[in-house]
Design brief:
alpha+beta; 3-stranded antiparallel sheet; 1 helix; 3 strands; flat
């Protein structure tokens, strides 16, 4: 099973979510949980559209890790 990394950014209306390895998969939600669910749905819909168009689905390529912050 492929695992895609997501990035969630606070915005005035809630959160924006985007897949790092597939930037076209982007969505918004009022809460972080709503945004996560919406991003999963957007991923599944985009994957289906790519399959129907015989386009290759981008594979996860990034290594994501948190860095220490200076507090």
């Amino acid at each position: 099973m492929k695992e895609y990394n997501a990035c969630y950014t606070p915005i005035p209306s809630g959160y924006m979510g985007q897949l790092l390895d597939w930037p076209e998969v982007v969505t918004e939600g009022e809460t972080l949980d709503e945004c996560r669910e919406s991003l999963k749905d957007a991923f599944l819909e985009m994957a289906q559209a790519y399959r129907e168009l015989n386009k290759p689905i981008p594979l996860p390529q990034r290594i994501v890790e948190p860095l220490l912050s200076e507090d």
